[in-house]
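ARCHIVE CARD
Drawer: 12
Card no.: 0347
Subject: one protein chain, sequence and derived structure
Cross-reference: see card 0346
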Amino acid sequence: MIVGCAQPGETWPDWGERPIEVEVGPGHGGFALDHATKHPDRLLVVIETRRSDCELIRMRADKRGLANLHVVQGDARLLLPRMFRDGQLWAVHVQFPDPWWKKRHHKRRMVDVEFAQLMRRLLRPGGLIDFRTDVPAYFREALQTWLEAGFVRLPDAAPEVLSTRERRYAVTGQPVFRAAFENPAAPVAAPPSERTGRDWRDTRRK
């Protein structure tokens, strides 16, 4: 299977018939492994930039016998439109994305207006966004970004599966900010302004 070589719209991998979910930036894969175990009827594709993390997740998935967890190394922004057709995804999980604290790195922040517009296209009507962070300003800015893109926020509910970080925070008391959104059937609208969704500031936790 060739991933990341074709231009968007030219060709896509054959993912089979199972509902497809994506996790962007799975880290060591704590959430991905538990989620794939809990939902063997779904295909979970995780996209991670670090080769060492990809190899670790593959090894842990093999030990569990998880045939429904597929690991891809690379930049999610580049790979997603090359891997999936519009309306093909059932859910996208973005959990604790890197805050990229330095100003010169703000352009690397994952959740911005462009990414939200891409998710509106790739998710099926009724598809879900699962967003979690431990940075208050990131949460506030991302909330505005998802809503401006046309997503509908769902009522707050306890997550079905916790990440490794969330289990650790449950012990230390560090707050976690979570929100889930549904992709409506309405057409994807153009961004309402020049806002990028990346230019937030917060106090870096030591």
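Annotation on reverse: The first helix runs from residue 30 to 38. Strands lie at 20-24, 43-48, 69-73, 89-95, 123-133, 152-153, 177-182.
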